[in-house]
Write a structure and sequence with these properties.
single chain, alpha/beta, 4-stranded mixed sheet, 10 strands, globular
Length: 313
């Protein structure tokens, strides 16, 4: 394909992390949107994927490019301050809420003084690193209580694009589901994640699946190990109450992030779209018949998108 073969472009461009007002005005040209239909989803790359998915299904577009990015080398010292602009202005913004602070609140709520949950988080982080031990993770410096340095991803540079097309050959995007929680941390269920359960149920229904255990390659959100562990039950990978058991042997029981996790490095804002590309690569490599990508942004996973991809039989 060439850019002339596209009839739509959907960007996920964040003004805050890019440090520009209306960032998509500058970035739509390099993405190939000049003299083409273009939409920007400033909330999440998962929402950009959902928009492209709906455009194909509705028949308004034949081929849509979905792109998102992040440049940690430019935002490493400013992104937390910029993220505060997303907070409620009178009560939460001055408190310094941002992605890291929200993730720490969620992790603290999840662990709640339970040593077993601390150990499970360290094991998940070590597995996702691939070259670290749980003891190393547990001994690394505290960054935002209770999260430690080796439980959090360093910010990296990355750009990610996928072309969606109606018909033709290739990998099938068989189901997408998305759901958003409320903005205020104090009013949300940070542990139960009902909005992730809703997004997953919609994706499974569209893909004609009963649940997540039939999926051979799982690419989950792991900005923190707690976020990954909390996703197991809403995604239908285990029953509620079995999350810690799955966390400790998930690599053997299910193919959870077989290629490693984001804890090795994550591009700000746009990084979650990489989960979809990893799922597509798993299908193309024929290492699985179906793969799942969980794309998460917002404070403590406010925005959840679940995508199912599978090989064409």
């Amino acid at each position: 394909l060439t850019r002339d073969d596209l009839d739509g472009v959907v960007l996920a461009a964040s003004d805050q992390t890019d440090g520009r007002a209306i960032s998509s005005m500058l970035t739509s040209g390099p993405a190939g949107a000049y003299l083409n239909d273009e939409i920007n989803a400033a909330s999440s790359p998962g929402h950009a994927l959902a928009l492209g998915y709906m455009q194909i299904l509705s028949g308004t577009h034949r081929r849509v490019l979905v792109s998102s990015w992040g440049k940690g080398s430019e935002t490493a010292t400013t992104v937390q301050a910029a993220e505060r602009l997303s907070a409620e202005p009178f009560f939460e913004r001055d408190g310094g809420i941002g992605a890291l602070a929200a993730a720490a609140l969620q992790a603290q709520r999840h662990r709640a003084g339970d040593p077993a949950r601390h150990r499970a988080a360290a094991q998940v982080a070590a597995r996702n690193h691939g070259d670290r031990s749980a003891d190393e993770v547990a001994a690394s410096a505290v960054v935002a209580l209770p999260l430690r340095a080796l439980e959090l991803p360093p910010e990296t540079d990355g750009a990610y694009s996928v072309v969606l097309a109606g018909g033709g050959e290739g990998v099938i995007l068989s189901g997408v589901g998305w759901c958003s929680d409320g903005a205020r941390i104090a009013e949300r269920d940070l542990v139960g994640l009902p909005h992730l359960a809703k997004a997953a149920a919609d994706a499974y229904r569209r893909a004609r699946l009963d649940g997540g255990r039939a999926i051979g390659s799982l690419h989950l959100h792991d900005y923190t190990p707690d976020a990954e562990i909390l996703a197991y039950a809403p995604l239908g990978l285990c029953e509620a109450g079995r999350e810690l058991e799955l966390a400790c042997n998930g690599g053997a029981e299910l193919a959870i992030k077989p290629g490693g996790g984001s804890v090795r490095g994550e591009a700000p804002f746009g990084g979650p779209l990489r989960k979809l590309l990893e799922a597509v690569r798993a299908i193309r490599a024929k290492s699985a018949d179906r793969a799942l990508a969980q794309m998460t942004t917002g404070f403590a996973g406010q925005f959840q998108t679940v995508a199912i991809v599978e090989g064409r039989s």
